[in-house]
Structure formats: C-alpha cells, structure tokens
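Example complex used in Figure S2.
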Amino acid sequence: MTSLERLVYMLNQIATNLATDPDPVTAIAEHVQLFWDPRMKQMILESDREGLCPAAAAAVQRLAQAHASA
Amino acid sequence: MKIRISDDALAIACGADTVARAFIQAGAEVERVSSWGMHWLEPLVDVDGTGYANVTADQVRAIMAGTTESIGSIAEHPFITRQSRLTFARAGKTRPTSLDDYYASEGWLGLAKAQAIGAEATIETVLASGLRGRGGAGFPAGIKWKTVASAQAATKYIVCNADEGDSATFADRMVMEGDPFMLIEGMAIAGFAVGAQKGYVYIRSEYPHAIAKMETAIAACAHLIAPFIVEVRVGAGAYVCGEETSLLNSLEGKRGEVRAKPPLPALEGLFGKPTVVNNVLTLAAIPWILTHGGEAYASYGMGRSKGTMPVQLAGNVKHGGLFEIGFGITLGELVNDIGGGTDSGRPVRCVQVGGPLGAYIPPSRFDLPFDYEAFAAADALIGHAGITVFDDTVDMAQMARFAMEFCAVESCGKCTPCRLGSTRGVETLDQIIAGKNVEANLALLADLSETMKFGSLCALGGFTPYPVMSAITHFPEDFR
Amino acid sequence: MTYQPQKDFGTPASGSNDLVTCTIDGRHVTVPAGTSVMRAAAEQGTSIPKLCATDNMKSFGSCRLCLVEIDGRRGTPASCTTPVEPGMVVHTQTPHLQKLRKGVMELYISDHPLDCLTCAANGDCELQDQAGAVGLRDVRYEVQSTHLGQEKDHSNPYFDFDPSKCIACSRCIRACDEVQGTLALTMEGRGWDSKISAGLASDNFLGSECVSCGACVQACPTATLVEKKVVEIGTPERSVVTTCAYCGVGCTFRAEMRGEQLVRMVPYKDGKANRGHSCVKGRFAWGYAQHKERILKPMIRKSINDPWREVEWDEAFAYTASELKRISDSYGRHALGGITSSRCTNEETFLVQKLVRAGFGNNNVDTCARVCHSPTGYGLKTTFGTSAGTQDFDSVEECDVILIIGANPTDGHPVFASRMKRRLRGQDGRPPAKLIVIDPRRTDIVRSPHIEAEHHLPLRPGTNVAVLTAMAHVIVSEGLANEAFIKERCDWDEYRHWAEFVTQPRNSPESLQPVTLVDAEELRAAARLYATGGNGAIYYGLGVTEHSQGSSTVMAIANLAMATGNIGKRGVGVNPLRGQNNVQGACDMGSFPHELSGYRHISDGDARKLFESDWGVALDPEPGLRIPNMLDAAVDGVFKGLYVQGEDILHSDPNTKHVSAGLAAMECVIVHDLFLNETANYAHIFLPGSTFLEKNGTFTNAERRIQPVRKVMTPLNGLEDWEVTQRLAQAMGLDWNYTHPSEIMDEIARLTPTFAGVSFSRLDEEGSLQWPVNDAAPDGSPIMHVDGFVRGRGKFVVTDYVPTDEKTGPRFPLLLTTGRILSHYNVGAQTRRTENVAWHPEDLLEIHPVDAEDRGIKSGDWVKLASRAGETTLRATVTDRVAPGVVYTTFHHAVTQANVVTTDYSDWATNCPEYKVTAVQISPSNGPTDWQEEYEALSERARRIATEVPAE
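Predicted assembly (1502 residues):
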C-alpha cells in the first residue's frame, strides 16, 4: 500500500480502538497530535480524507482546525 | 475334631500346606491359624488343643486315629507358659483374617476405649505404659505421639515400619501374617490420638505372605476404622529403608536416602507433614495397652524398660521361635534355658543380639538383663530383640568382615564414613585375615570404626562398629 | 587483590526476625533463629570444615566433616543440620573432632586421583582446601577398589564431567533441583556404586534435560564439573563485578579474569536480580567477543554492491559526518534518523538520542522496544502513570497466585523463571503458589517437575483482549472486585463505566468462547482464582504486546490488577518481562520519537527548556518518526540517512521485504555493531562496536534496576561505543567532551527527575538502584504505586476486543506465532557465534500432529511456510504443544528468514508489530525458497571485505 493508504489504515485502526473512549474524536485527535511526526500529519491533513471512518474523519477535521488557528 | 494348622510363612516352608491338604483329603475340617511361634515344632498340628510336632503328610491318618504321640496341650507347653504373651496373645489360636475370631478375642476393644476417652487421654495412657519404640531406637512412643499431636497441620500421617530386615527377626512378620487386625487397630488408635487421617504400612518386598494378609485384612475392616485409611506400600530390597527417614523417602517415591535430622519426622515427615513412624511391634502393643490400661502394661519389665518384648530366638539354636517376656530376663536364661543352647549340640561361642549391626556377646556376659540401658552400658544393643546363636565353629574374623560387607552392600551411599568406610573396612579385614600387617591394620580398623560410629549419618554406618569391635574385643584370637 | 571466591556461609540465611544468642568457641554470637551452627560460626569468622554444604542450598549432612561438639548433647552432630538454640555452647575444634575429620578425609583421599598439580581445580578446589584444613598427612588404607579411571563426559560445549573426581556430595544434584528447578541430575545406584547421572543411564550432559545453566559447575567443590575454559587457561587471578548483556533479568556476574583474558563468568551471590544464579547464555556464551567474524576496523563503501573498504577511525568519522551533512543539506534535517540500541548502556543510548536531537536537529529516534514492549510503555503510562513494571523480582516470593500471559519465562527469562519455580514448588515450607498460564502453546512451565498449572488457557492467537475482558466479566459480575481499593486509589466513575462494559452479556466467558476457543468454565475458575487466591501477580511478555491490540491488552491487564487491588505491595503487581538487557534503559533514556528521557513528551515546554539550556541548542517540539514510519518515508524518497546502533532491523523487524525496500532506498545507512549483520547488507558505513566486557556504563533491567557494567578488557575495536558516538558528534561539529561514562550519567541525573539521585559512586556503594531515585525515594523504589499511582489515580480504560485484520482462510488456514528458546538470544547475533548452536542449530517449525498428518509431514521434514507477505523454508517438528490450527517457530537463525512471513499489521497505539498472529499455510518442501536463495546471494556479496593488494 502507499504511504497515504497506510496512514488511512492506521487512523481507522486508532479510531476503532478508541471507540469506547468517553470522547472518541478528541482522543483520536490527541493521539495523532502526540505520536505522529509532522510529515505524517501533513499528509493526512492534505488528503481528501477518503476511506476514513466517520470518527477518524472528524478527528482529522479537528486537527485541521487546530493547525489553522496555530 | 478341630484341626488347626498354621499358614505362617515359616510353617509353610516346613510343609504346613502339604500337611493341611492331606488332612482335607482325609476328610477333616482344617482351620488355618497363626503360628504359635515354636518354630522347631513346625509343622505343628493342633487337634482340639493337643499338639503334634513336625508332622508330615504320611502321619495324617495316624493322627486322626489318635495313635501318634503328641506333645500334649500346646497351651501348657513350658515354652508358652513361661511367656507373658500380651502382644502375641492370639498366636496359634485365631484365624488371622477372621473378624469373628478377632472380635471374640478382645478385638477392637482398644479402639473403642480410645474413642471413648478421647485423643489426649489416649496419649496419656501410652505415656503411662512406658512403651518404647520396639524397632530398636527405644524412644518413648508417647512422647513421639504427643509431638505429632501438638503439631499444627491439617494433614498428618501414621507410618508403620514393617521393613524388618535384621537377621534373626520375624516378630513383625508373625504379627502381620498372624494378627493383622491388631496392627491395624493400633494404627487406627494412633491416627485418632494424633489427628492423622491416613496410615501407611511399609512392608519389605521379601514378605509376600505378610503383604497379602495385610491387604486382605485392611479390605475386611476398612469400614470399622473409617474415616482412618490404611494402605500397604511395598519396599524394594533395601535394608537401609528400615531407617525411618530413608523409609519416608522411599514412600515418597524417591531414592531411599537417609535424611538429616533435624527436622524430626514427627514435625516434618512424610511429604513434609507431621508423621508418627513406629515399628510394627510398637503399634501392635497399643490395643492391649488401651484395653487394659497403661499401668497394667508398665507392671511388666524393669527399670525404664517397661512392658514386654517379643524376643526372637534364631540361628544355631535348639528351640527357635517367638518368646514374649517382660524386660529383665537375662540373656543366659533366654539362650540356654529357653532356647536350649545350640541346635548342633556344640557349645555356644557367642550370640548376636539386635541384627547384623548388633554386638557379639560371649557367654561371660550372659548375666546381662534384657534392658535397654543395661545393654547400652555393655556396648551392646537390644535392637528389635532378634538373637542369633553361634556355636564354637564360628570364625569371628569372618563375622567382622561380614558386618562390613553387609554395610557396604546396604549402604544408601549418602554419607562418607558408611559409603567409603564400609568398603575400606572389608579390604582392611581381608588384609588382617590374610595375616598382613595385622597390628597396624587392627589399629586402622579401630580408627575407622570410630569414624563410622561418630561420623555416620544413620545407624547403618553408625552401628557397624559394634559387631566389628565386639568381635575383636571378645575374640582376639580369631584375628591373629 | 588476588583471586578469592565469594564467601560461602555453608547454609542459607534464615528469614526469621527472632534472634538467638549462643556461644561458639568461647565467643558469643547472635543470629536469627533457624540459622545453622555452621552459618553462625561463619558469620563470626570461623570456618568449620565442610564439603557438602554451600549457602545457596538447603543443608544435606552427607560429608560428615563439619561435626562439632555441643555441651549437653551426646555424640558429634553435624553443624550444617543443627540449628542454633539459645544458650547453646559449641566447640568446633577438639582432639576428638580433629581425629574424626582426619578419618573422613582419609576415606575421601583413599578414593581420589592424586594429580592435584595438573588438575584444573588446582588452587580452586575445596577438597584440597579441606584436606589441608584438617591436617591429613597420610592415607593408611591398602586400597583395592576405587572409582578412578572412568571415562570423562566432554559432550557439553562449556564444561566437562569427570566422574573419577566425584566425591558424591550431591551438590550438583541439589543445585539442579533447588536452584535451577530442572531436576536433570540424579544419583544412580547406591552405596559404593553411587554415581552422578545426567538423567537416564544412556544420557550424557548434552543429551539430557540439562539446560547448561552452570549451577552444578559452580556448586561442584572439585574438578568433577569444571569449565572448559579453566581447563584451557588456568585459574583466574582477579574478578570484576558486572552485569550480563543478554536478557532483561540482568544477572550480576563476577567476570573472573587472568590479565585481559576472561576465564569464566560466575554468578554473583549478592546480585539482586539473580541471587547467585545464571543461565547458559550469560554464564557461558560470551565467546562471541572473540569470534572470527567480529569486525574490528571501521569500513566504508559508496554503494552496497561494492565490497567493504577498511579505514581508520578518523577517516570513518569524517566520511560519516560529511555524508550526514550532505543529506541534511540536500533533503532537509528530517531526512536523518537514528535507532538506539537496547543492548548498549544507558549512557550510550542517551548519547545517540542526544546526537539525533541536538545534532540532526529532529526527533527521528527510536529503539527496539518499538517491536517488543512499546505497548507496555503506552499502556502502563496511560493506566498507572509509569512506563515500567511495578515490582522487583524478589516480590515473586510473596505471590499466592501467579498469572503468566504471553510469556515463556523458562526460555526467555530463565533465571527469573527458576525463582518463580521455587515459589510454585513451595520450597520455603509455605503452601505453593498457584499458576495460571494464558498461552496458545503448552509452554514448559505449564507442566514441569513438581509444577502443574492450575489452569492453562490455550487461547486462539490474537484474542488476548477477549480473554481478559471475559475474566473481568467474571470478577465484576460475581462480586469479586476489591471496591475498597478502587474507591481509594482509582477514579470510581471510570471504574463504573468500565464495569458496565465488562459485565455486558456479550463479554461473558460463554459468549466469547467461540472467539477465544477457551473453555468457559476453565476461564471462570482462573478468574476467580486470580481475584480471590491471595496476592495475585501478573507476568507478561511479547505474547501480549506483539499484537494489533498490544496496548489494549496491557491496559486490560492493568484493569484486572486494579480491580482486584493487586497493586502497591509485595507479591502482586503488573510485571512486563522486558526482553533485552537494556531495553528498559533505552526507553528511560528518551529513545522514543515522542519522548525525552524520563518519559516526558517532547511537547512539554518545561522539559524541553531543561534540555535546551543544558545542551545549548533548540529542540524540535514535534514527535519524530517511528522505525516503520522511517522505512515508509524512505520508500517515499524523503528519508535518506540512518544511524543504527546495535540493532538488526532487517532480521528482527517484520515484513522483511518492506524493510529491505526501505533500507535500499536510503543513501547513507550507518551500522554500528559487532558483526556484519543482516542490516549491514544495506549499509554504507560500518562502525565496529564494543562488547559489554569492554566498556563502563549501566544497564537497567526489567525491575527498573540500574546496574553497573564494568570494563574488564580493552575494546578490541579500539573504542568504547559511547566514544564512537562522541567522536561522530565531534566530527559533526558538536562540542562533546565526556571523559568517562559517569559524566554522562551525571548529565542524565541532572536532566531526568526520576534519575536525580543516581550516580556511579552511589551505584558502587549500593550495588544497584531501582528508579525512581529522588528526594522522595533516596534509596530507590522496589515497589511502585505504594500509596498512590504515579499519575494520581489509577485509570480504568475500556478495551473492547477488535479482531485482527490478519485472517485465516482457505489459502492460509493456520496461525503462526513466534517465540524464543533458552539457548539462543533473539536474532542470535551473539549466541549463534558461540557453542550454543549445539542445542539449537536451526529454527524448527512446531506443528500439531493432526495438521501434520493432513499434510503428510513428519518431524525432520523440510516444509514451506507461506503467508500473504512471503514464504520461507525450514524443518518441522511434530508436537502437541501447539493446538491444532496453530504453528510456532523461533527466529534465531538468519537463514530461516522468519520475518519474510510476518506482516505489516501492528499495534494501533505504538505500531508494535503483530508478530504473534500471521495466517500461514504449511506444505512439504524440497529446498529453500527463491527469496531465501536470493537473499543468501545478496548477503554473500554484501559481506565481502576488500583485502589490500600491496602496490607494486
């Protein structure tokens, strides 16, 4: 798989495992923020979000907003 | 006409089964009973209380017709009347595995009494009796039981040492073959007194008849001793497994190696649990003690050796057999009066008391009373009270060599003085017997004996010096 | 100081708190009740002659040398088996005792070879010593029969057995029983015929169940069992205490030297992790340091297709620095990265991450923990607040219930396993602890001499979370949770949220049975046992972490421990069995791309400022790349340079094809290692490394115990590893001037609060320290979370079971899981270059009889192991240790290429690879696969070293 496909897979996997968190979208966004390197974050933010499950897509949206206001 | 013939192994070896078959074929009703313990008379046929000695099959018709000479009333025989048969009261009289016969002869009264008076009072009774371990150590049974009773453990055991390996001993065998319920009752009483749920009887493999009788008896009376359970375990040909700690190792399925003490088996014994290890005779004495009371038992004997000892006369002796008597009788009376001297008719040169590791005692010391302390003071031991008689054709140097050789063969191999010393002892005696450097080698042998006596881990190596040094001391002429 | 063996007190120390005073040779001695007379005398400085007694085993009482006289007691009791009593009066030397001891010794010597002067034990023989001590002058026996002239057993690669010198003291048998717990040795025959046997009469030491731990060799008082190296070299002249470099137990050894030659490694009795025991690897397998394949000179090459060219250090550093600069200039500073070694010292890993952060200017640093215990770091940090285990090893002595999940301690952590076995056998007189094992395989500890697990749950690989959730279901729904503990120490609302989740009907053992394949009743019983059996401790390993839900499993374990109150005291806890000798340390030192030392996130401004002011450089505040992401970035063309210290990612990381693609795409791969490993096939620069014998530093074991590593010989490659990193940094223009690793530790202590009180001088004093070491805990912290969790309140995290995406199907119907074997260590880089290959010359595939029969496979047959990722060939062994449907292999031999088969699936939180679940098919084969042949050709080409042809 391409690097982007791998990132999408990873993000979906994170979302599935954080589904039982009280606030999944925040948890996913925090996880990515804490552990992904800038280039990986860049790639996912610039992507068209295709293939992401709803919670993951929402988390990416949250991150995009945070980066925009940074 | 009630015909009784023993099915004890010794009687069978003398031909009792053949004789019994002949009587049956002749139409008589034959009861197989325990042996009276007068071995020179076997096969002994009891016809309504009258005894016929050394019977062969061809004498059957004559006996039934009443035309053969008898020895008279067996019970009135002086060999019997001179005894105080407490443990061997039933010998010759009952069928060993018949519960009816056992009930009819004071059977199970001891257990009932123990249960009535309670565990603590039972132990007090045993203490009052002065009963000491009959296997050889002579340790007060009551104190051992008390130690185990006080130990804090959910699981405890009774182990009966039936590995009777000493030469000239057969009392344990006679109890197991002749009066097994008595032994089982004794174990059940012990279990009740100390809080043990299970008992094991460790029987030497060389006693197949005893093993079979015990299995039959246990099956027959299991319901009477419940919840206490007794099981037979068979040894595998090691004399050293008569030593209590190596017996426990063998029971646990391990090498029959001696354990160091402490810890005492009373606190850490079988599988690490508090365990009473007692000889067959010790446990067999218990039912009588509970039935008749501790003081009654203690009224027999002398000094600190209370009660009766089943002495076993064997070897080159005229009247070999089981002689139960209170402690205090002299060695001379036993050997000469009761035993009748040698079977060969030649003079008695010495006797060995207590098995292959017992001291050789010359006639000059036949004044010794049968008493633990008196024997110890004379550098001898009572052991399991087997007496082997020798006439004047015995070569004491060869007997000393045999003692070392016996130790070498039976050594468990754990401790250095016994494992290596016994072989070196044989080699040194060979040198002496061949006449090489005799004085130097005798001195070396004395040193080796001291090392073995004080250094060995158990009595196998520890007591081997007794026969060796007593032979050298009392019969120096055989060594030079 | 001349060579002295460690003092032997004769019998073990007593743990009693009651004291007893007695008199020995006229002097008063006070010791704990239960101490033997022999030990009491030894503590007072009196050595009673002895041969069969040694202080790491129970007394035996067989030699009969140690006899003493005691007032009021008859005879001459053995002092080793006699406990002291109050007021006892003992005489250790009297004319009678002298005579008896001489008598015993005379017997020994009458049956012993008299070749002391040429014997391997000359000068180090207890029989010699005691013969001298008791004053034996002659042997008077005219000896006819002896045990001399017997054949020696040379089968074990590391030690010899000479029965002619045996004095039948049984120390070896007792060591194998009490210390190691393997019970391979026994005494055959009785009396004079007593003979040590390695098992059956037909067994020699190599063929028997002996695991070559060396405990018997250490115990043997004569030359009967002796190290081959001692036979070859002679006795040592000095010893240096250091720490083993193999696994996470971190055994302390005395390196016994003659000059700079290592004669033998002897376990140190006072080592807190190993308490005087060892395994075959640390004890014997250190010969790799002198192996002919060891590279001693730096090498460089422009292309990986060229042969290597040997150069001097200066040229190597200059070239490396210039390459790194070139890449940084061309592609940006994010194109570089480093991998720290979990086998190098704390000081060395600290320098590598410092090189990356301060030198490369990014956070692209990672370590092998990525592929093993990174989920431990994540999971325990989230739930408890600390990325490490909660107990010390001694804590196992107070367990009542031991739960092992995803770990095989008898193979992976053997010395600790021996201690666990002592507790499981109840050797101290207390009722034995009970054992629960959760593992798809019937590992050795499930059923071994005198040990049987109460419950073995052979779950389907990949279903750990389901099993643990089912156990939680039982504990909560049956009212077995420790609510008092939870209320006091955790967040009650989080607990209730979690409790609601686990008690749902779909999470019951019965509902989950089709998923886990674990019998519901067994699981219920196991859960009840853990919750109610007393002190319950969980020990886990890579069978937990190397899964797509590795982090979740760790958190599920933490949840169980919190729910039952099994935290914060001795005998309980959550214990990750860290694999490498310093993987804990490498993680502590900030080897992860998102964390500085002490597990502070790189985004933490205060932490960054602390480093920035000390280092004089600005730090990148964003997390960096993990190893798999580095490889992805390399394939994408943006990651170009990698400095790998002491790690063989091509061998140990999953999906070999992906790794080689990543490496091949880089322009500068720097391998800093002892041997040309698999990764070096793709390297451009090779910097030779130093072994643990050749440097000073510290390792941190699985107990968080920081232990000293002491240099005993000059590095054969010329530089200690920290010096290599420093010189590289200097070549890059960094102003580093460390003169000794203690200075590096001082810097670590300055910058890392949990290490604040650590220094080399403190370690010399104390022997070792368990972090945190700070004002709150100045002497270190054996047990953590005692009064409260490090994060404050323990956090319950709901972990729902998510099946792995690695599914079996008609093409790949079996599940492969991987593991380790005792004699080899991980990728075998070291152990394959020692005699340990005698035990495990190849990796074998374990397959169940039913699956084997379906495919016509017998033990010894070559089979093809294929997955969606790739295929390889190895030989099979048919066994019912694995369940039908599950196969198993080890990965110690490069030629096996086991990781060609493993996938890219990994833990959701940490990317720890899912080694433990691969869907595979097994079929008979007649030789290596194409990949194996290509790879072998590549390796051969890549390992050529140009020899200098002299100029005309």
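Residues 851 and 865 of chain C are 13 Å apart (CA to CA). Chain C has five domains: 19-93, 159-289, 299-372+582-770, 374-576, 814-941.
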